[in-house]
Amino acid sequence: MIQRLVKRALCALLGVACLALSASCETNNPEQQIETVRIGVATYRSDDTFITALCDDLERVSKQMESETGKKIILNIADGKNSQSNQNDQVDNFISRSYDVICVNMVDRTVAAVIIDKAKRADIPVVFFNREPVEEDIRMWDRAYYVGTDAKESGIMQGQIILNALKKDAGIDKNGDGKLQYVMLEGEQAHQDSLIRTEYSVKTITAGGVQMEKLANDTANWQRSLGTAKMTSWLDQFGDEIEVVLSNNDDMALGAIDALKAQDMLENGPVVVGVDGTLAALEAIQNGEMLGSVVNDAQLQAQAMLDIACALTEGSDPQQVVEGMNGQYVRAPHRIVTKENVGQEIAYLTQSE
Ligand code: BGC
Ligand code: CA
């Protein structure tokens, strides 16, 4: 009995002490007054060069926004390791921690409805990025958004790089048969950017009056080492017949250049174009190894994602306040980069480092 009383008294005392402590925290600790935005970011895999750049930009831009707005932005970036079930678990985890906003770079972009359902039930807005869900899924909820680019535009610009180069140097058609013999390095088969870049790069060149002859095409899954492997086997098969290498991204283009270098075929070899404008690609353009690329602006995309997140946590409608938003979509414009303007693009990319 006495023991129980002592216990109760102790508990009561402890309770009072706790209350006093928390009250003093509220009044004295400025940390409590700072508005905190917690964002969960689920990437399809973290070893993808473009996604790495985009995540670095998210970190950097969020720091900038912290100092501009006085808010605290907490980013939790998860690696899906190319498994949709991993990614679903990561999203569940963000939801169970009541994050303010969830950003998802779908492993399998055809199953976004599952994520939207979960987010909607928890009433946590979701921003998809880079791997575009079908429009029907985005339309399921007015607090689902997509930040990316217009894939068609990148394909068209890739084609324009070839057309412009051919005007200045007819020697790109090495055998002078009036056609461009080309190989196509494709990204993942199910990625919107692979299918559309492939289609529109070639369409643009032929619409410009230049005939194209495809020697080979295959996927190298966006990866540099797989790009090297593919290009090596095509060089064995076609030797110096290849006049143009069209690549759905820069990493695979750089892989093709690695293969050309290994066989001492870079000089007087085919012209190579990619997409992304990664730093490694810009350097290859600067030193003449690569003809050009199309900038896939990760900084703009990171900024748009964070603008949406901040608007949502302030209770405003992103569609009213976020720059470049069109309905539930933000598409960052692309830019052509070749030797002529590469210095400018390197400066843009490294300005903030
Ligand atoms: C980029 C690729 C990247 C892919 C990942 C594309 O938009 O161009 O470099 O691997 O997205 O989803
Ligand atoms: Ca030719």
Automatic annotation (TrEMBL):
Subcellular location: Cell envelope
Pfam families assigned: Peripla_BP_4
Domain Periplasmic binding protein: 39-315
Residues making up the signal peptide according to the UniProt record: 1-22
Record key words, sorted: Metal-binding, Signal
Keyword NAD among UniProt keywords: no
Keyword Signal: yes
TM helices/strands, residue ranges: none
Subunit structure, as described in the record: The ABC transporter complex is composed of one ATP-binding protein (MglA), two transmembrane proteins (MglC) and a solute-binding protein (MglB).
Sequence similarity: Belongs to the bacterial solute-binding protein 2 family.
Official protein name in the record: D-galactose/methyl-galactoside binding periplasmic protein MglB
